Amino acid sequence: MKWLALIFIVVPVLEIGILLWSGNTFGLFPTIMIILGTGILGAYLAKKQGLKAIRDVQIQMKNFQAPGDAMVNAVFVFAGGLLLLSPGFVTDLFGFLFLFSPSRELFKPLVYKWIRSKMKKGQIIVM
Question: For the chain, which ranges sit under pLDDT 50?
Answer without folding.
Answer: none
